[in-house]
Amino acid sequence: MEVPVVRNILEANDRISAQLRKLFAQHRILVLNLISSPGSGKTSTLERTLTDLAGEFKMAVIEGDLRTDNDARRVAATGAQAVQINTDGACHLDSSMIQEALEAIDLSGLDILFVENVGNLVCPAEFEVGEDYKVSLLSVTEGDDKPEKYPLLFAESAVMLLNKTDLLPYVDFDMARAERFARALNKDIAVFPVSCRSREGLGAWYDWLRDKVREKKNA
What we know:
The chain contains 9 helices and 7 strands. It is an alpha/beta fold. Strand 6, helix 8 and strand 7 form a beta-alpha-beta unit.
């Protein structure tokens, strides 16, 4: 039986998320919700993406962490707008947090807003934050069965970034198995093996971003 308080929390979150989605659509901003385990490389991937595409797009990042502004300072160093949300123990960002953080972001002319969620494969997948797409990151230092073990995230993600591929010679990770599990949940998921260190696969990820920005601007 569904617990009423849980249902009410999710419904309230979805109402604000719908308002945010309408706002982002008015400004034609592509919004991506980045979700992964801690240490998978979300911030490093963002740093590389923000740096490499700085000449093409105006971008901003909302950072979610339990404590510190370490990640916000890292992405701000690329020249992108950055706002830190400290959840003080909460395991995910919700739409009300995003709504409040937007007060510190200039939306005019913005092309892409990245939401780097709290490191967690469970709770963040359940709370929409007005995003167009969820992007899951799975590093090769984790188990290749993560999509099978945490199905909701990978079922709802438009992209799975298989990160840290430069470490493949040193870890026991089956790329084909991870992709097979993800596609069993979501046949349309785009899978990009990437490495921020070697730059492998980043071009395909950037092309996907370019296509989605173009679609958003022409909507």
